[in-house]
Amino acid sequence: MWALVINPVSGQGKGANLGTYVAGYLNSRKIDYEIIIGKNAVDQGDSLQRFIARYPNCDGVIAVGGDGLFHLVLQKTTPAQIPLAIIPAGTGNDFVRTLGWSLTEIDTLLNAILNAKPASVDLGLVDGEWFGAILSTGFDSIVNEKANAMSWPKGPMKYNVAIAIELPRFSPRHYDITLDDRTISTQAMLIAVSNGRSYGGGMLVCPDADMKDGLFDVMVLHPISKMEFTKVFPKVFKGTHVTHPAVEIVRSRKVTISAKAVAYADGERIGQLPISAECISGALATWIP
Question: How far apart are CA 44 and CA 69, in angstroms?
């Protein structure tokens, strides 16, 4: 028995279309499954929790949606040690990107889910909440706060507008970052605690992050001028920003960050700092190419 968890509004309706396709795929192969679609995120999470209580030894959970749905489902499947597969239907899909799956060859992914054994990959745990890709604070979190408060425009363009609004008035903040072997006390524009390689729909903030090494890649962007920031920022899509002298990347299993700032993980709001995160080796069973 499988749980098929669908966010129909992911990707401006792509979730509904792909969810229907996956259900048809399972039906054609006579696979037992139960569809879980909630009235809202809380209702959907509760419905999945009840499914897990009924089928604690189920085959796994297939989530059709974006990074938000992944983050929601992760909180239920990880404590129960149930395999989780993501069918990418959102605007970011960064966890699927890091795993190495194509965002368009859905049949290949479905075939692996049904016929191959899942593998173990690391997860982050921040103050009791699981995350798969990246925990961040700084300019990107401020942009997230602004974008979430905006009703227009819709889709990815909302974040571009939020950047245009927030960058002129943004200033670096002071952070205390405690790692396994030292503490960094510094002004910074952005800090990314990375289990995965990318966020924001393919921004390779930590291009060398490995979800099987038991460590976070922690990227610190030290203060630069706003003009320099606009030059460096586009480089993150290829991961070439890491050569800039203001970019520092260190590795650590545990990270604590203190500042007057807010944090996000997998695009979801975690809350005000301070926060403490740990990389948990092999916490998630999922399918990789």
Answer: 10
